[in-house]
Amino acid sequence: xxxxxxxNSEPEIFGEPAGADAATLTVVGRGSxxxxxxxxxxxxxxxxxxxxxxxxxxxxxxxxxxPGFGGTxxxxxxxxxxxxYAAWLGRFLDQAGISEPITLVGHSFGxxxxxxxxxxxxxRVARLVLVNSVGGGAWSSDGWGxxxxxxxxxxxxxxxxxxxxxxxxxxTHTAASLVNGFLPNTLRDPGAVWRTAHLARRADLRHxxxxxxxxxxxxxxxxxxxxxxxxxxxFESMRKALRNPPVLTVTGGHGWLIHDPTTxxxxxxxxxxxx
Length: 275
Known about the structure:
Helices cover about 40% and strands about 15% of the residues. It is α/β, with parallel strands linked by helices. The longest helix is centred in the middle third of the chain and has 18 residues, at about 170-190. The chain is globular and about 45 Å long.
């Protein structure tokens, strides 16, 4: 795995990683390292304004492009698991020269990777922030009967995501996400996009979350209250597995942080101040 670090004295997002082996897009600020893991079907470019603002608030932000997306080669078949992504992240940190413990922030699918990485690489993660993350493992079709997340029909996932994408409040950032993330990723490696979709929609990481709670790792949950993609039951099961960690709720849906960089930067700063 090659790592292409794009750095500058100013905390700005630059273009997609160049070359087939490139594995990161970097925002350089001043302060302790924050590693941000993007959501399913996307690339760090989609979060550009939000991550730039975060860097301006005193953080050095690194944003790896996860395997299978944005030109980073997909995993071999035996590593196409959350554990495989966690191991990849450890190698990425080594090649990026990051030896100190990091703050790890994950959105959506990236949250599932972050949970597994914090579990598997305890010496490398000092704090975890999960933003509308997969991994809760629970679903309800009617708000009452709780069922395993793996029982949620594919059509229900699709209908929920489509409903949010077509809402008036999110249609602008949806278009940007399609142009800068989902469509190029699908054209470049459609198999990887659909394999990771299957992994994300069946993610149940409550055991790993319980281990993190036992260790006393600082974990904060950030939740957009209008999320239609991740079920509320999944979020609640994550909170239960973590034994009621700090929770910050915001107005917005699954991708709120993409189109509201000011709120994202402010919310993350609050999360990093949590006990």
